[in-house]
User: Which sequence fits this backbone?
């Protein structure tokens, strides 16, 4: 027994890279199918066909349709391959360390414009799916609640600069940020009214400055 050789865990970089490429192909196909057909009409079989993989491969690589869609939403918010919650995003430390309220607002407006270029089209499919699918209805609520908590944190960070208008409560500041950073707002101006994402970003920052910062501090 003492002479037995312990087996080392098998690790193949080539196999790992192939699995990552397969997952990426599935996610790309799924996003295309969801945006083209909507959530309800999209099937795992259709996603598998578009990705040129077997149906079982979709389940093994990502999961069922709700899990796959959740992954797309979370990665769209995070802006990276892993579904890191938005509260852990790299932009938050930058906003906290920005010296003025105006700088914080500009950074956040830029972040929101970038997120919604990825998220807003999926958001329309999520809105449809949330009414009929309890799992995605829960995701809808989680995203909304997370966004509300984050806006309360950002409101406190802005208020701490001492540069905001007198009389504004943290709840009012958070509500203004929350209502204007919504995907619906981006969709109305960019998708429906034809604004460019860049115009939306610059207008959002200026609107928040005018609404929140005391005139002498802009």
Assistant:
């Amino acid at each position: 027994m003492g002479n037995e050789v312990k087996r080392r865990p098998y690790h193949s970089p080539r196999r790992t890279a192939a699995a990552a490429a397969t997952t990426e192909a599935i996610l790309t196909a799924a996003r295309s199918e969801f945006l083209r057909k909507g959530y309800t009409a999209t099937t795992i079989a259709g996603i598998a066909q578009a990705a040129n993989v077997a149906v079982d491969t979709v389940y093994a690589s990502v999961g069922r349709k709700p899990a796959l869609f959740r992954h797309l939403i979370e990665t769209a918010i995070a802006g990276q391959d892993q579904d890191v919650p938005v509260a852990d995003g790299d932009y938050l430390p930058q906003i906290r360390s920005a010296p003025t309220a105006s700088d914080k607002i500009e950074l956040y407006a830029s972040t929101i414009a970038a997120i919604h270029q990825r998220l807003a089209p999926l958001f329309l499919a999520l809105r449809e799916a949330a009414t009929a699918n309890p799992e995605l209805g829960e995701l809808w609520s989680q995203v909304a609640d997370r966004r509300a908590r984050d806006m309360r944190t950002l409101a406190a960070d802005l208020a701490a600069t001492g540069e905001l208008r007198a009389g504004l409560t943290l709840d009012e500041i958070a509500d203004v940020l929350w209502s204007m950073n919504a995907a619906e707002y981006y969709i109305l101006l960019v998708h429906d009214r034809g604004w460019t994402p860049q115009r939306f970003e610059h207008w959002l920052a200026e609107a928040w400055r005018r609404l929140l910062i005391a005139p002498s501090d802009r």
